[in-house]
Structures are given as structure tokens and as C-alpha cells.
Amino acid sequence: MITTDHPIASLAEELVRKHFGRKSPLTVTIGILEHGNQYCFGQGGPHGFDYASAIYEAASITKAFTNTLLFILERQGKLKLTDTVGKYIPECEPNPEVCRITLEQLGTHTSGLPRLPAGLKYVKTDKLNPYQHYDEEHLLKDLLTCKPQAPGHFEYSNLGAGLLGYILARCTGRSLEELVREEICGPLFMEDTAFRLRPDQQQRFLPVYTANGKPVPHWDHGVLEGAGGLRTTARDLLQFAKANVGMGAAPVTAAMKETHRPRHRLRRSDEAGMGWMIRTGVYHDKVHWHNGGTFGSSGFIGFHKEKNMAVIVLANNGSFALRPFSILRPQKSHVEDIGFELLKVMTKTID
């Protein structure tokens, strides 16, 4: 059961005003998990608005789901982290550098693949929805011509994460939609997390706007949907966070635990897991988190395992401003600051 009467709600409202001002249109949903109890509230909706059930773009938070799937399938004996791209995509055999990349390297952003596929610019017919026409044919063509950097160095890659999702589907003969629904959402009772929404869900899917209030389309991620294509609610992400702190179906929570392990140090207090960034606080405690954004959406999920606490922040407002002549200018991402500030107050540990 989700309630709205958490004492931190007034601070959350203050933080939204501080970071977003009085932007309109804007809807922000904040979810709180504390010792197994779930709370949800928000701003911007009409009186009586159901913030917990409003559907947002998950964007790169999707990567946490894709990596969870990787470990679920490994535990089922369907694949190994050391398996290579070439094992599942023999079409890329002419490019041995790509063939040698492992699934683990895709999940940790250490594959050497670039952030975006080179061929994306040739199929981008709508700069406000850049991935929508990038399909399997384009991906396979790019893999043949790609020249990755030497593996081992952390380089955030939407291409790599999307390729991982594509391989998971190829390996199992099931769509990524089916895998997420059957292996994660079903066991965790998450009813509104999907790549493609039903008509009744579309009615709760919020329109999205740039940082300066211009309407833009939702993103369609094409064949790279494993990098950022999910739609979700605060209600579902609270269930996902609850499982990540150890309260959920055993096969899922066991796989999630593997995604949490630090794999690569980024800075003194920051590391990367698989699908998660990890921030170490002043008392050497760790917060796992990920953000997500499109031109019209922004989101944050962060949790503290030892204290069984988590914060979700979702907004139908992106971190890019749309200027004349369709020029997009990056702006500050507010949801991450709000999320960390709330976690700091709740846990009394992180910087």
C-alpha cells in the first residue's frame, strides 16, 4: 500500500520549487521507500491526481533492468558474462574487435564502443526523436564497421547497453518486452513497466516538455530499447527499489545483488556497478543510483541497501531547452539533485 503522509513531503515540495521554479507545464512525482513502507506524492497535477500511477519515460533507468535480466539469465544457465558478442551475432565475424567484446563489458560500459552508433545520424529523420528509425539492420551494419577503443576503460555507451538488450533477446528467442515482463515485472508485481503501452496505459502516459516548456515527442528507442526504452511509474519503481534492497522474489533479488557489486572506479567516491552508479558517503556507506533523461523527461532512482531506503524522482520535463531553429541546449538536471538531497536527509550519511 502506498500512502502520501511522509514527513519529508514538505521538504520535497520545497526542493521541487527550488530546482524547477514555477515551470508550467510540469508534473513531478516523488516516491519514498523507508523500511518497507512506500510513500508517493507530487506536484503539478490537478486536484486528486494519482501521482503513483502516472506513467513516465524511464529513459536510462532502463539499464538497471537490462543488467538485472543479464544476471537472471546467467543464473538460469542461458548465458555467461564471459560470452562474447560474436557468439550471439555471428554476422559481425568480419570485425573481430567487436566479436571479442564480452557481455560483462557491455554491462559495465567498458567495451570500448562509442556512446552512440555511427549510423544513427543517417537515419535520424526527427532530431527530437533520434532513435526511432534505428533498427536491427542498422545495428548490424554499424557493428561491422565499428572500430572500438581498447576495452577496460569506462566510457558510458548507449550503443553498448542497447546491444546487450538486443543480445539477451536473441539468446532467448524472446522479445525484451517479454523478458522484462516475465522475469522482473511479474515476480515483483509491477504492472505498468513496459516498452510498449496498452491503450489504457497510454491514457496515463504524461506528455513531455523541454526545460523551457516546449512540447516534444516521447522517444522510441528502436533496436536499442535496452538502453532507455522503458515506460514506468513511481509505484513500479518503488517495487523495483524494494527488491534491490532485498525485499522481493528471491530469483530476482539474487540477480540484483550481482548488479550492485562495484566493477570500476570512476572517482574517489564514485564507482560503477552493472546498471548502477555507486556513491560512497562519509561513513563509507554506499548509495546505488541511476538517472535517466530524454529531451522531455528526467528521472532518478537511488537506494541505500543497509538502511532499506530509496528515493524515486520522475518529471515530464527534460534537461534540454529548445531554442529557435530547433536548436537544443543542455540545462541542469534537477531530479538528480532532488533525489540525492532527499536521500541525504533520510539516511543522514551521504554527502
Structural summary, described in words:
By secondary structure, the protein is α+β, with helices and mostly antiparallel strands. It is 34% helix and 19% strand. The protein contains 13 helices and 15 strands. The protein has a 9-stranded mixed sheet, with helices on both faces. Strands 4-7 form a two-stranded antiparallel sheet. It has a two-stranded antiparallel sheet with strand order 5-6. A hairpin with a 4-residue loop joins strand 11 (286-293) and strand 12 (298-304). Helix 2 (62-75) packs across helix 9. The longest helix has 15 residues, at 158-172. It is globular, with a radius of gyration of 19 Å. The model has no long low-confidence stretch (mean pLDDT 93).
Layout of helices and strands, plus pairs?
Layout: E1 2-3, H1 9-20, E2 28-34, E3 37-43, E4 56-57, H2 62-75, H3 85-88, H4 96-99, H5 103-107, H6 120-123, H7 136-145, H8 158-172, H9 176-188, H10 199-202, E5 208-209, E6 215-216, E7 231-232, H11 234-244, H12 250-260, E8 264-267, E9 270-272, E10 277-280, E11 286-293, E12 298-304, E13 309-315, E14 320-323, E15 327-330, H13 334-347
Parallel strand pairs: 1-3
Antiparallel strand pairs: 2-3, 2-13, 4-7, 5-6, 8-9, 9-10, 10-11, 11-12, 12-13, 14-15
